Every structure is written in C-alpha cells, then in structure tokens.
Amino acid sequence: MTKGENMTFAKKIAASAGAAGLALFAALPAWAQEAAAPAAEAAAPVANPGNNAWMMTSSLLVLLMILPGLALFYGGLTRTKNMLSTMTQVGAAACLAMLIWVMYGYGLAFGPEGNAFISWGKFFLAGVTQDSTAATFTDEVISEYVFICFQMTFAAITLALVLGSVVERMKFSAVMIFGIVWLTIVYFPIAHMVWAGGGFLFEGGMFGTSLPAALDFAGGTVVHINAGVSALVAALILGKRMGYQKEIMAPHSLTLTMVGTGMLWVGWFGFNAGSALEANGSAGLAMINTFVATASAGLFWMLAERLNGHKGSALGFCSGIIAGLVAVTPAAGNSGPFGAIVLGAVASVICFYAVTVLKTRLGYDDALDAFGIHGIGGMVGAIGTGIVYAPGLGGPGDGSVGIGAQVATQIVAVLVAIVWAAVGTMIATYIAKAVTGLRVSEEVEREGLDLGEHGERAYNY
Amino acid sequence: MTKGENMTFAKKIAASAGAAGLALFAALPAWAQEAAAPAAEAAAPVANPGNNAWMMTSSLLVLLMILPGLALFYGGLTRTKNMLSTMTQVGAAACLAMLIWVMYGYGLAFGPEGNAFISWGKFFLAGVTQDSTAATFTDEVISEYVFICFQMTFAAITLALVLGSVVERMKFSAVMIFGIVWLTIVYFPIAHMVWAGGGFLFEGGMFGTSLPAALDFAGGTVVHINAGVSALVAALILGKRMGYQKEIMAPHSLTLTMVGTGMLWVGWFGFNAGSALEANGSAGLAMINTFVATASAGLFWMLAERLNGHKGSALGFCSGIIAGLVAVTPAAGNSGPFGAIVLGAVASVICFYAVTVLKTRLGYDDALDAFGIHGIGGMVGAIGTGIVYAPGLGGPGDGSVGIGAQVATQIVAVLVAIVWAAVGTMIATYIAKAVTGLRVSEEVEREGLDLGEHGERAYNY
Amino acid sequence: MTKGENMTFAKKIAASAGAAGLALFAALPAWAQEAAAPAAEAAAPVANPGNNAWMMTSSLLVLLMILPGLALFYGGLTRTKNMLSTMTQVGAAACLAMLIWVMYGYGLAFGPEGNAFISWGKFFLAGVTQDSTAATFTDEVISEYVFICFQMTFAAITLALVLGSVVERMKFSAVMIFGIVWLTIVYFPIAHMVWAGGGFLFEGGMFGTSLPAALDFAGGTVVHINAGVSALVAALILGKRMGYQKEIMAPHSLTLTMVGTGMLWVGWFGFNAGSALEANGSAGLAMINTFVATASAGLFWMLAERLNGHKGSALGFCSGIIAGLVAVTPAAGNSGPFGAIVLGAVASVICFYAVTVLKTRLGYDDALDAFGIHGIGGMVGAIGTGIVYAPGLGGPGDGSVGIGAQVATQIVAVLVAIVWAAVGTMIATYIAKAVTGLRVSEEVEREGLDLGEHGERAYNY
Amino acid sequence: MKLILAIIKPFKLDEVREALTGLGIAGMTVTEVKGFGRQKGQTEIYRGAEYATNMVPKVKIELVCDDALAPRVVETLQQSAGTGSIGDGKIFVLDVGQAVRIRTGETGEAAL
Amino acid sequence: MKLILAIIKPFKLDEVREALTGLGIAGMTVTEVKGFGRQKGQTEIYRGAEYATNMVPKVKIELVCDDALAPRVVETLQQSAGTGSIGDGKIFVLDVGQAVRIRTGETGEAAL
Amino acid sequence: MKLILAIIKPFKLDEVREALTGLGIAGMTVTEVKGFGRQKGQTEIYRGAEYATNMVPKVKIELVCDDALAPRVVETLQQSAGTGSIGDGKIFVLDVGQAVRIRTGETGEAAL
Ligand SMILES: Nc1ncnc2c1ncn2[C@@H]1O[C@H](COP(=O)(O)OP(=O)(O)O)[C@@H](O)[C@H]1O
Ligand SMILES: Nc1ncnc2c1ncn2[C@@H]1O[C@H](COP(=O)(O)OP(=O)(O)O)[C@@H](O)[C@H]1O
Ligand SMILES: Nc1ncnc2c1ncn2[C@@H]1O[C@H](COP(=O)(O)OP(=O)(O)O)[C@@H](O)[C@H]1O
C-alpha cells in the first residue's frame, strides 16, 4: 500500500466502486476485508493463482483454528466430564454457521444491495460460478468462491468463540437455536457494518461526525469484541456453573490446551495475513506482526504473573498467546513490528488483570474467559490500533489523520459493537431459552454433559 | 471450465494429447486428476508458482491427513492397549507406499506407455528432473515432482484407510506384506484405469456401451470405494476380534478421534481442492463444496441419531464429517454447493444405517468402519455425483449427458472398482497370511498389540 | 537450476552481487538460504504472489513444527510431572527467539554490512517496509518481511531443539538466559557464516584451502548439528536427572510423541521445500526427497531394531522419521530421490546405534536424544550430501567438483560448527548458571517441574 | 483401632472430608474405584454398539481411628455422604491390630 | 460378615462378576491395581532403555457378605477367576465388624 | 496371617519393594491413592483460581504374610519408606482369616 492518499476520500469512493475503480483500493490501509464482493459482477478478470492459493490456504488455516484448534483449547480447559460436549458444541456450531452462511449469511453481509446495516441478494449464492471473482484491495481479484469460503470461516469461528463462556452447562439444542438467531441478528449485520462497502462503520463520519473510518485489519471488532461481549451477556443470562468458586474446576488437560494454543497461533495467520486478500507485502507485514505481538504477549503474561507473586504458568503462557493474537488482529497490517510488540504486551497484561482480578471481583462465570480475553483483548487491540498506526510510531499510516481522531473513531466502533452485540445476544439467548430451556438439568450438569447430552465418555482408558 | 464441449470426444483426444493439445483440457469437467503425465515430455513450459505452491500445500495437507490425522482418528477409536499399534500401522504403511510409489508405482499408474489397465515406464522416476513438468487441465503445468508427490500421498492414504477394519488383531508384518501386494495389484491398476489417459474408466464407452466417462473429481472410486471394499474383504478373511460383541470395546479416546476428525477435514481440502491441479476457480468450487457437504453431513448424522431415539453423539458428529467428506470427494468440482449439501446429508444418513444397523445384522467385524463409511459413503458419493452434476440441479455440467446415462456410468465404475478391489484384496490377504500368519496370537491380542508387537505402552501416566 | 556453471566462481560473485547480478543465482545449487538480503535495497521489484504465498505457508509450517509439533514430540517423551514444563520451555524459548530476531538477530545474521563471522545493520528492522523485497536464487524476489519471518522461525526452532537434552531439570529462568546468550553468540554467527553472502562457510576456500563451498540446502549445519552439539554440551554441564538409569523414565505418552512426529514431518516441508525460497522445481525436488528419505528412515529404524533382536517399536518409527528428516535437510535440493532414500536409511541406522548403544556406554543424560538424533543425524546428512550430490549417483550436481573434495568441504563445515557450538554453549550455560543457578532443587525435580516451576498439573482427570 | 472403609459418591467427597475434619480426624486415604450394585450406570452408545455399564464411579475412603471415635465417624460419614438416592454407598468397619507412623515410628493411637 | 478381597486378572472381571451375581451377590467394589508376584511383566524398551516391569496390571475386588455365604463366594471366585496359569491372583478373607448402608442407615447384613 | 496395609510416598516404592524382597516377600499389591493428612499439597493456580489441594498422591501397599513375619515386614517397611519428613505415611496391620491362591486352590500360608 502506497502512502499519501486521502484515506477518507478513497473510502467514500471505494464504497460504490466497481472493478473500474479498483486501483484506488491500493491506497486503502484500513478495514482490510471490505467491499470485495460488489466488484465481482464486472467483466471477467482472472485470479492470480498465487493469491488464490494463499486465500485458500488462509481459509483452511481458519478451519484449523476451529476444529482441532479451538475445540482443543476450550476442551482442555473444561473438566473431563464435559470434554466431548465442549468439542462437539464448537464443531457443530461451526457447521451450522457454514450452512447458514451459504444460504443467506453471505447475502446479508456482502450482498449486492443494502444499506448501512444490512445487505441482501445473492441468497443461496445465486449467480456465483467458478468463474466469478471478488476484488481485493489492489486491481487483483480472487475467485469469489474462495472469498466466500474465507469469510465463511470467520462467521464459523466467531460463533464458536462465544461458546467459551457457556460450556459445561448449556444444552446442545440451545447452542443450535442460539447460533441461528445470533448469526442472523448479530454477526451478519456487524460484519456488514464493518467490512462491506456502504457499511456504517466502514464509511467513517459515524453519527454525523467527521471521524475517519475505523481501522480493523482482520476482525478485532467483528470477531473478538463481538464474541467476547456476546459471551459475557450469554453467561450472565445462563448463570454460574454449579459449585463455581467452591469446587475444584481445574483444566482437565492443559496439555491439550497448549496443543490448541499452538494450532490457534498457526491458524491465526490465515485470519490476519489472509485478510490482506493477496499474498503481497501487506500480508507479509500482517504476518510478522502476528508473530511478534504474540511472542511478546505470551512472555508478558508470564511476567505479569511473576510480578504478582505467582509462578509463571503454562496456562498463563497460552492465555498470553491468545491475548496477543486477539490484540494484533485489528492491527495486523496497520502497525509496525515494534508497535505490535508493545500492543501485544499491553493487551496481555490488561487481560491478565481482567481474568484474574476483575472476573473474581465481579463474580460472573465466564467459564473459559471468552470475554476476559477476546472481549477485553479485542478492545485494547482496537483502540491501540489507532495509536500504533501512526507513522511516527513506526506504523504504516500516512499521518493524514491525527492519533486523537483515529483513537476516537476506534472507540466509537468499539462502543457500537458492544451495544449491538449485547442487545442481540440477549434476544438470541432468550429465544434459545424459550425453545429449549437453555440449561441442562442439575443431574446432567453434575454427571457431565458428555454422558448426559451425548451418551459417551471422552476417555475409556 | 467452459461449457458446451463434447466431453467424450475431448477425453479421447486428451488421452493421446501432448502439450500442444492441452488447451482442450480446459473443457474437461470430469475425472480431475487425469492424464497429466503424458504431456510432461513436451518442450519446457514453466510451472506458475501459484499453482505449484497450491499443489505443494495440497500434498502436505494429504500428509497431514495421514500421520497425525488418520492415525489419531483411528487410534482414538481403538482400545488403549492397541493405540500405538494402530498409529504405527498407519504410519508405516504410508511410508511403505511412498517408497513403492517412487520405485514403480508411479510407472504402473502414470507411466508413459500402457494399456487400459496398467502402464509402464519411468520406473525409479527415470528421466524426471526438477525441470520436468506435468500438465493440468488447462494449458498450465506444474512441476512433475510436485505431481508425483501429490499422487504419492493418495496411494499412501488409501492403503492406510484399508487398515481401519483389521486393527487390533492383524500382525505388523502382515500389514507390510499385504501393503506391497495390495498396492501393486489393486491400487496402481485402479488409479490407472480411472485417472490415466487411456485408462479403462477414464475413457467412457466401457464394455462396448456408449456410456460417457465417469465423473470422479478427487478419488471417490480410487480411494474410498476401493479402500472400503478392500477393508471389508480383509476383515472377513481375518475374522472378528476376540470378544467382539461380548466385551466392551469403547473408543479409548474420543477426544483424539475428534482431533483426528478436524485434521482430516482440514487435510481433505488438499485432496479435493488440490485435485483441480491449479489454484483456480475449479479449486474454489471444490473447496466450498467440501466445506458445506461436510458441515451438512456432520449435523445430519446427529439428526439421524435423534430420529432413532438416541442422543446426538460426538462420535456421530465425527462419523458424519467423514461420511460427508467421502461423499463429496467425487463431487467436489462436479456439483454446486447445494447439491453438495444434499449429497452430504444423504450419504451421512445412509452411512449411519450401514454402521449402526447393517453391520450389526451381518455381524462382520469392520473394527473402525472403514467399509461402513468409506465404502458405502464412497458409493453414495459416486452415484450421487451423476445426479448433482446436472446443471438443472445447480451443478457445473453442461447438460449434454442426461442424468440417467451419467448415473449408469457411475454405477458401472462403482461395480468395476468393487470387483477389482475384492478379488485383489483376497489375493493380497492370503499372500500375507501365507508369509506371516496374518493374525497375532490370542495372548498378544488379549494383552494388546502395543506390548505384544511393539514392546511399548502408549501411556505411562 | 541449470547445470554446468562453475560453482565456486558463481558463489564468489554472488557474495557481493546486488540485484543486478541476481540472474547468476539461478545456477547456485547449494546453500539454499543465502545472501538474499543484500539485494533488497535495489529498485523495487515485486514479489510473485505464488512465491510469497509459498514462503508464507512455509513459515507457518515451521511454526507448526515448534508449538504443537516439537512441544508434543518432546513433551510426550518426558514424564507426566514435567509435561507442561517441557512444552512451556519450548514455546517460550521460541517466543524469545522471535523477539530477539527482530531486534538484532536479523541484523547480526543478514545485516547489510559485515565480515565472515557476523554482520550488522537493519537492527530493529530499520528501513524495512511492506514494499521491501529479498532476493531468491533466481531473478525473483519475495517480500522482505516474509523472508524475515521465514528465517525467524529457523532461529526459534533451533533454540527449542537444544532444550531436548536438558528438560526435566533445567530452570525456566535458566532457559531464558541461556537462550538470549546462545542465540547471540552461537546461532546468529553460524547462520551468518553459512547462509549470508561473505560468510565464512558460504564462500568456500576455508582456511586457505581450495575447497569448494559446502552444501547445505535447508540447515543441516546451522540447525541440526548446531542444536545437537549444543544440547550435548549443555546436558554435560547440567548433569544427569536424579534417578537416571535407575528409575523408570518411560515416555508418559507415546501417543502425543507420534502426533508430534506427524506434525514435525508435515512442518518440515516448510523447512526443506521452503528453503528453495520459491515454489519452483527445486522446491519440488526438496519436497519429494523429504518424503522418501523420511519414509525410508522410519522403516529402517524399525528394521534395525528387529535385526538387533528387539521388536520394531512405535518410538523407533518416530525416531527414524526424525532422523531421516534431519539427514535430508542439507540434501533436500541437493540429491536425487534415491540418494535421499539411501541417506535416510543410513542416517537412521547410525542414529539407532548412537541412541541405543553409544549413549548408554558413554552414560551422559541427553534426556530426549537431541544430540543422538539431531547432532549425529545432522553430521551423517551433511557429509552424505557431499556424496549424493554427485550426478553419477542421481544427484543434481554438475560434476565439476569431485566427491572427495565435496566431502572434505562438508567435513570442514561440520567441524567448524561443532567447535563453535561447543564453545559458545559452554559460555552460555555458565552464564545462565551464574545468573539463575541453572538447575531446579531436588525437591522440585522429584515432584516435577510442572508443580514446582509453574504451579500446575498437566492432567486433572 | 478401627479401619473404616466407606464407598461414597465422588461429588460428596469434599463435604465428607469437611465433616470428618470437624470430628478431629486428621488423616484419611482416598481411592477412585468402580462400584457394582443396585445403582445402574449410564448407557453409552458408540456407532450402534450399546454398553450398559453396570460399573459406577465411586470413591473409597479408608480411615483408621481409635475405637472410641469409630461410631461417631460412621455416623458423620453416613450423614454427610447421604443424598437419599440409590447408590449412596456403604460403610464397613474392620479391626486394626497395629498402626505405625512411618516418619517417627510411633505406634498405636499415637500414630494416627 | 466377611470382607473378601480378591486380586484377579483384569480380563476375567466380567466372568467373575457374572458368576458372583449367580450366587446372589448384589454389590462389590472394584479397583485397578498393580500386582507384584511370581508373574513377570512384559519388558518394555524405549530407545535402548529396557524396563522389565515387575508390576502387572490386576483388578482388586472388595466384597462384603455374610459369614454363611463367604465360603461359596470364595469358591466361586476361585473357579471363575482361574485360568491355571501363573498370576491368577489371590483371595483373602477378613472379618468385618459392622456394615452400614449410607442411603438408609440400615446396618449389619441388611446393609449389603 | 496379617494384612499389612502401608501408605507411602510414591517415589519410595522401588526401595520399599527391594527391601521387602530381601525379607523373602514374594508378592504384594499396589494402588495409587490420594492421601489427606498433615502434609499439605501444592497450591495450583489456573487463571487466578487458586486450588490448595490437600490431597497428596500416595501409594498404598497391601501385603499378606504369616504372623511370624509380620513384625519384620512392618519394621522393614518403616525403615525403607521413611524420609523423616512429614507425609511419610502409615502402616496398619489387620488380621486375615483365610488366603487362597486362585491358580492352585492352595489355602493358608501356602497360598502366599
Ligand atoms: N456387598 C458389597 N461389598 C462391597 N461393596 C459394595 C457391596 N454392595 C455395594 N457395594 C458398593 O456400594 C456402592 C453402592 O451400592 P448400591 O447397591 O448401588 O446402592 P446403595 O448403597 O444405595 O444400596 C456400589 O457401587 C459398590 O461400590
Ligand atoms: N503376599 C501377597 N500379598 C498381597 N498380594 C499378593 C501377595 N502375593 C501375590 N499377591 C497378588 O497376587 C498377584 C498374583 O500373584 P503371583 O505370585 O504373580 O501369581 P499366583 O497368584 O499365580 O501365585 C500378584 O500380582 C499380586 O497382586
Ligand atoms: N487416620 C488415617 N487413616 C488412614 N490413612 C491415613 C490416616 N492418617 C494419615 N493417613 C495417610 O497417611 C498419609 C500421611 O499422613 P500425614 O499426616 O500427612 O503425615 P505423617 O504420616 O508423616 O504423619 C496421608 O496422606 C494419608 O494417606
């Protein structure tokens, strides 16, 4: 991405641009995953195989994050008796999201027609063929099916992330109902607002202000703040696990949690470097930032533990890794490597306090800290991106927007996401409650959801 | 792939085409992995790095399916005492297949000379250098070493899949002998018949009929029907495990089975989207189909369980995922996304009955359901591909072949594969029996193959 | 790579070549990862997305090797009570290496100015932007950030490999201090000597001889001999584990070790095929060699066990896989497939004796056989590369250098690496000892480092 | 001295231990066991193969105390471990001839 | 009442349990243990380090019954658990002073 | 005959077994247990949730021998299992009424 363009202007154009206007996208340093779809109808450009290859690889990396990755990360943290339940909920929720995505999700988020909050058209992928393409941020294109797959994995993992706060007590059937409603009224609109041309947050100037467009390279707002806040709200409605803060609820296998952590890290590059939509230098920048912010965050969490009189722990290391990944998500292509290192460190320490001190004080039961890490880490990342983007701090920004204005925009975007996610989740959870009862019986909760909900044991040694 | 070409004609030409005729391949919508080798001798075209990158990535994805993937999926389903045996058999069989492949397997399947059932030449990869290329379905090429690697992983995983029915009782040495013979008389000929120019099933018009060529994008016949039927025959010859249907034989770690499932899903995209041989729109179509057919199948298996009065289970979810992946393999680039969703659902429900009802009734001991899922799922997929291919059902076909004729062809291909695999497996198994005794002693079977065959325990907590 | 160029001459030129001289690199069959950085300053060439995609994928594959891969491989071999400690040390050491790499490691190894032993400049990645590129061996370029990431993962895994000999007793804090010093005085200089233009071993003619430049495609010397020898020295200084050769120290989960083995194999292609720096035929050659050498080594270790009167074991299979991967690393693009098969087999058998006979005789406690496999396997591979490179043996060499001279060069390179690594490790270990005490207390060692150092248990079933 | 051997539901362990500590009991030994009795286990199904486990996870407590305390220990155990539903478990009492504290060599009641 | 403590081969557990059920035994408690005795364990080798385990996996059955039934329980156990090969295990019989059913508070033979 | 029931530190098992073998003891049965006593467990912390485990991993040895040997077994056990630090464990001795070797049907001391 070259420097010196008027960002806000470029964006205004971009929102209505067809393939003809695509060269302008080269200057777009922000909201990386935007408005690719509208251009797809133009005369047939052909995807460069290198970019297509990278985007297919990136889609698979996000899948790797979900099924072995997140399922293991979350599953390892639960108790033995709920292991399969946790993994199955993650997997089945992802499957559900995929089916809904191709039916109407893609249309609601990236459809050819729409307003600031939602779009429509292309339902059931009408009109998409193997020759359809989607625009990137330069004058390149990628296969539209590939773009659809890539975005599909984002919807799938975001829903799965929410479940981290409600495992060990929420019914499988409730997860399914919740998933359908939540995707429809929370995820698709937010994805549209943030990533689609014409979207409310994509355009800048929110609420009649002259604020610039927000920066979110790979989904800090759409994925992490959204998932984190939704997780908190769902956990509050659902209530605490029986015996919470009384019984020992130690992770049944930190080994598996560490395996999951490694897979999440590897897969996250699909998320972050994939959000460049091409295998170019911007992807390279996103990659190096995702390496070093994460490395920094992993070590800083252990350091925070030491400074608080504890031993540096394996779970702390893993938690730091995730916190760093979350924080660098919006900043991936919007920061220099050393801005990313600082961002990772700061997010890690703040999440450490959120998870160890704040949660205990407030007493809510966010079982696997989906809010404490994705929610809080996402907010730190979103706001911090407004800072590290500045060229004076090594960021790739062109300096045309002051740090203050950018940070203000970032805060607005965070607040919009928080409110939308909270309200939508409330609705989705209560609908799930009305239909299924939401929570398993006491007996099932005590004996474990593996036996009670699925009729199996995770281990038969 | 453009529409409107006479498929059968195109194929006849393609079989003898050198690089000069390659443009014709662009029209080839079927048997994705075919006849790439013959063109390799022509004047030096250079592989597009994007396609080469994608095909290398795809080869690794298939390796990921085998060693951590299938080994975990299968291993988790066995009892603790046979865990290492299962994993080692999978791994060592794959290694064996790789060595045989470069010695004479590639020559027998894709050699420069041959007839409808087998080819020859290029033994020990004679004449292949880092500058050699193999043709794709357009006028592109990829490095021949990369094509050899990609095809090598198919041979390796197919042999490993067969072992699913015979674990927990077949000797390691018997697996090795069986593997050598089976690859030679079953796998290489079938791969040649299906994928090589001039191959019996590749050409259409089988048995003097005017049937069109069969459709098999990524190996439904060569890999899954073949492996499934071979597994059944080998299991019948070997006999049941001691205590079968009397003792508890619950999976020792469904956790690991789920991890394996996730890895198989991720890796399967190498299989399916890789079979486009390029990072193009056809690969994109194969990718989205592989996502949604699988998602649908995973959820439909759980639904089938519920409709049959059971709880939706984690193993059911995993089994559905695999059944969906199997079924979509021949259809990957030959279906629209909604055809794929239906195909996944149907295959999942049929496999559910095969595994829970049919197997119990017939009483054979296909330990890990290699036949029930790969065999049955492969047949459903192969025949279903003949249906979903039709443009009227959203498929990418050009409508020049009627659904009836296409389905008839698919059935013929399935039958040929069944008969060939069954006879060949019988021969291979009896040879292994003559040389090694085939089955471990009762004492080793009782104490477990880990200690008895390998002198180790999988876990020493 | 075309044949017939004078290698030594080509290299002398290459060392001072800017982008203008890059075409010459096309002829360079050796030291694959060299001197890419110097060319990065030239006028702006653009990375082919296919190559960039492959190199990003390769970087991730190496990360996969470290965090789930090596952590599981090593962790599975330790006792339950030290599982988290082993995994955390591997992970945290990798993070540390990443941070140091972007601060000054890249500058010390690949900086724009320097001598035969070290370079400088580009500290804190000064001057690198998303438009910077690094040269490959042809006239292509890749994004410099991608090149930095790729090389970063090498530094990270090499440090992690060293830890294999000292787990179960070395303090976490000691690992961190050791890591900082060791990377600085051992890894960066050796990487510079071997891979950077002007480097001591990169240039040939060492010690005033007329020896040709050494061959090392993907880091046999820099990574494996280096890590193996350092591991041995560190283990000797640290001393044996309490109860060594008295108590049972059976691997707590060979299952996880096998999973790690599979991931290492998959990831190693990033290492080996990635070291071509492009998705070209040379990468394809490196890929097929990495498949078959490994397959051969896995089976040959089991064979060696059988010939020595034992059962072929699962751990033997895994050990063979790793030995083969290590041995083929320098040979990956410098051998034909059958040279690679032989090299894998020979290395496997020699490592088998090193680990089962030699180690027991000498009585040192290299806990996870980092020396026995990486050190010894690396030496066999490095020297063997000098043989299999010859065109008469199927190698890609042009025959201009005799086998004898090439082998002599390889031996010199091995010896330089051994001496440098041994001396540097001694210094690093004693510094870590002075600062931290190096070794945990007897009580912590007995109870396990998981509880003692991290305050956690790996499993709470 | 008496050896009191109690088989209880696993989730009751914490409550039982606290109740016994209240009695002044300073030590006990706990083992994970599987119980076969009137209470039936869950049915598990794996791909159509149904396993009606009749083995239920239980926890066994072994506790040695002096003869005088034994009745109160049994009573406390019975109260704190009971849920009133089937499978609550059993308490058995056996005579112990001798007890030794390994660390000090103390014997008899002093060893407890 | 008697406590019958039997150490048997793990794969014999199902058979033994069925045989005892045939006698009218309604409950027992089972523990996984490791046995040290005449039977030697398998030798395991990990990278040249040989471990000749002298600990063999066994299953321990604890079963309380009234005095009259005890001899038949012992006999049934011995017959159903036996394979005739070394390592078949042992049966020990101890006196039990008291038994309580936690759920109901019943004591003595009524508690079994 | 006596049943000697010893609870010891896990890492002492090998030493104890060797010492007992020296006495001529040919068999014993070993179980992994958790001990609750004066010795406190390590504190574990997972994301701020502190668990002060008061259960410490121990090993239980069950060993039947004839009456004459019992005192020497107890003594040997006490010496070989002791480290002098808290948590070394206990030895309890109970009377055994009968012993049977399953394989042969031998009873009494011949069964040991
Ligand atoms: N005769 C017995 N001897 C030893 N243990 C027994 C006996 N009967 C029952 N148990 C143990 O007590 C547990 C509970 O017994 P059960 O018959 O299920 O319920 P309840 O105790 O409520 O009658 C069983 O799981 C078993 O572990
Ligand atoms: N003296 C003993 N005290 C307690 N358990 C014993 C004793 N002797 C043997 N055992 C248990 O009985 C099992 C079988 O004993 P072993 O000597 O191997 O064979 P056998 O019972 O056929 O003589 C041992 O593994 C151990 O668990
Ligand atoms: N009264 C008891 N009954 C049964 N087991 C006991 C009893 N007291 C202690 N133990 C066992 O002995 C172990 C050691 O006891 P502890 O009080 O910690 O130390 P010490 O034996 O040195 O006094 C405990 O962990 C527990 O397993």
Automatic annotation (TrEMBL), chains A, B, C:
Residues 53-459 form the Ammonium transporter AmtB-like domain. Residues 1-32 form the signal peptide. One of its GO terms (molecular function) is ammonium channel activity. Keywords: Ammonia transport, Membrane, Signal, Transmembrane, Transmembrane helix, Transport. GO terms for cellular component: plasma membrane. Gene3D superfamilies: Ammonium transporter AmtB like domains. Pfam families: Ammonium_transp. The chain crosses the membrane at residues 52-74, 86-104, 145-167, 174-197, 217-238, 250-271, 283-302, 314-332, 338-358, 370-391, 411-432. It is found in: Cell membrane; Membrane. InterPro entries: Ammonium/urea_transptr, Ammonium_transpt, Ammonium_transpt_CS, NH4_transpt_AmtB-like_dom, RhesusRHD. It is a multi-pass membrane protein. It comes from the Bacteria. PANTHER family: AMMONIUM TRANSPORTER MEP2. Belongs to the ammonia transporter channel (TC 1.A.11.2) family. This is Ammonium transporter. It comes from Sphingopyxis indica.
UniProtKB/TrEMBL annotation, chains D, E, F:
Homotrimer. GO terms for cellular component: cytosol. It comes from Sphingopyxis bauzanensis. The modification O-UMP-tyrosine is found at residue 51. It holds the Pfam family P-II. InterPro entries: N-reg_PII, N-reg_PII-like_a/b, N-reg_PII/ATP_PRibTrfase_C, N-reg_PII_CS, N-reg_PII_urydylation_site. This is Nitrogen regulatory protein P-II. Belongs to the P(II) protein family. PROSITE patterns: PII_GLNB_CTER (PS00638), PII_GLNB_DOM (PS51343), PII_GLNB_UMP (PS00496). GO terms for biological process: regulation of nitrogen utilization. Keywords: Nucleotide-binding, Phosphoprotein, Transcription, Transcription regulation. GO terms for molecular function: ATP binding; enzyme regulator activity. The keyword Transcription applies. The lineage of its organism: Bacteria, Pseudomonadati, Pseudomonadota, Alphaproteobacteria, Sphingomonadales.
